[in-house]
Design a protein that fits this description.
There is one protein chain. This protein has 361 residues and is an alpha/beta fold. Helices cover 41% and strands 17% of the residues. It is built from 15 helices and twelve strands. The strands form two sheets. Strands 2-1-3-11-5-4 form a six-stranded mixed beta sheet, with helices on one face. It has a six-stranded mixed beta sheet with strand order 8-7-9-6-10-12, with helices on both faces. Helix 3 runs antiparallel to helix 12 and helix 7 crosses helix 8.
Length: 361
């Protein structure tokens, strides 16, 4: 199996179109097997996440069923860990957990390059790989919850909607206070608003991006740091538009809140689940990682949160939910896919420039 970090926008779109029409034969035949080698598992495994609603969902949807079906207890620990801590865990041999998810785009390629992740056995994914989205599994892990940073807006203020980052920057046609995430990913949106095609975003033209950010800065009431702030602020009337994770918009709209999303140029991000190298419960972690690819369970996660992994969940969800997922073929086609390897090499420098820009204004 060749190692891949993801897929091109065109290939991703094709992959999801294909799995939507192929059914779930391989995944279905693999159901009932806890470890892909068919051998027994027992004991416990420790899973690490950032917690919150996502943590509650994976406990209910995956962990409880894993214990019921496979007999392995999942201990769930939550924190705000950093990549440096991952390095310390592995180099010291003091591993507080076995399996977890990436927190930043660049963590997966960095972790592989730095030897922090357990390499899965050869043929680990062979029984289900044909029914997974292209690039969604490899020797070191599987997609956790691909998501997109989308343009979110008030449907009360703009009943005809907004459609692009150019609209977000157009404060004459779409007046009102805005919010953006406090982080350098906002620079990508600035370049898209300035006319750079999604396929030509990398390497980032930082001078051009910051110049464009200077234009919108007077209209940004605040930069958000927690995932619910932008959508909640729009619902409360604090902002008319902002940036948000697509699942937050889905949940709010599902609850009847007046929010809409624009997908043109949405930043498509891939989060991964991985196993730490030397994890004390490696076999159980492998089994849990495999178990979490079941399409019917990922469909439950999608219904609860608006996020899902790489399994083909199309037979289990309706068209409304399918159209809200970051991995919808139509959304992938117009997305700006985050280049995790570029960020792995450049994040420290770009973050420093972003922090300096934030501090001077």
């Amino acid at each position: 199996m060749s190692m891949k970090f993801g897929c091109s926008l065109r290939l991703c779109a094709s992959a999801f179109a294909i799995i939507a029409s192929t059914g779930i034969s391989a995944a279905q035949s693999a159901a009932g097997k806890c470890h892909p080698d068919g051998g027994p598992v027992e004991g416990q495994v420790v899973f690490n996440s950032s917690g919150g609603t996502y943590g509650e969902n994976i406990e209910r949807i995956f962990f409880s069923k894993f214990k019921e079906e496979c007999g392995v207890e999942v201990l769930h620990v939550t924190d705000a860990r950093t990549y440096a801590q991952l390095q310390q865990f592995v180099t010291s041999g003091n591993l507080p957990w076995d399996i977890g998810g990436t927190r930043l785009d660049q963590e997966f390629p960095l972790g592989i390059a730095d030897g922090l992740f357990h390499r899965l056995p050869d043929g680990f994914w062979s029984s289900i790989e044909a029914d997974m989205a292209s690039g969604s599994v490899n020797e070191y892990g599987a997609w956790a919850t691909p998501y997109s940073d989308v343009l979110v807006y008030s449907t009360e203020t703009f009943p005809n909607g907004m459609s692009s980052w150019a609209d977000f920057w157009d404060v004459e046609k779409f007046p009102g206070a805005r919010t953006m995430q406090n982080g350098p990913a906002s620079l990508v949106m600035a370049l898209l608003a300035d006319g750079v095609p999604a396929s030509e975003i990398y390497p980032l033209d930082l001078d051009r991006a910051f110049k464009k950010m200077d234009e919108i800065r007077p209209h940004i009431r605040s930069f958000w740091t927690a995932g619910d702030q932008s959508v909640q602020g729009i619902v409360n009337g604090e902002f008319v538009a902002g940036t948000a994770w697509n699942g937050r918009v889905y949940s709010a709209a599902k609850a009847g809140k007046p929010v809409g999303a624009a997908w043109d140029g949405a930043l498509l991000r891939i989060s991964w689940n991985f196993i730490l190298k030397g994890a004390p419960n490696t076999r159980n972690a492998e089994a849990l990682l495999y178990f979490m690819q079941r399409p019917e369970l990922q469909a439950e996660l999608a219904k609860a949160s608006g996020y899902a992994g790489g399994a083909n969940i199309t037979p289990y969800i309706d068209e409304t939910l399918a159209s809200s997922l970051a991995t919808s073929a139509s959304h992938v086609e117009v997305a700006s896919k985050v280049d995790a390897e570029w960020w792995a090499k450049n994040n420290s420098d770009v973050q420093a420039k972003w922090d300096a820009w934030m501090a001077k204004q």
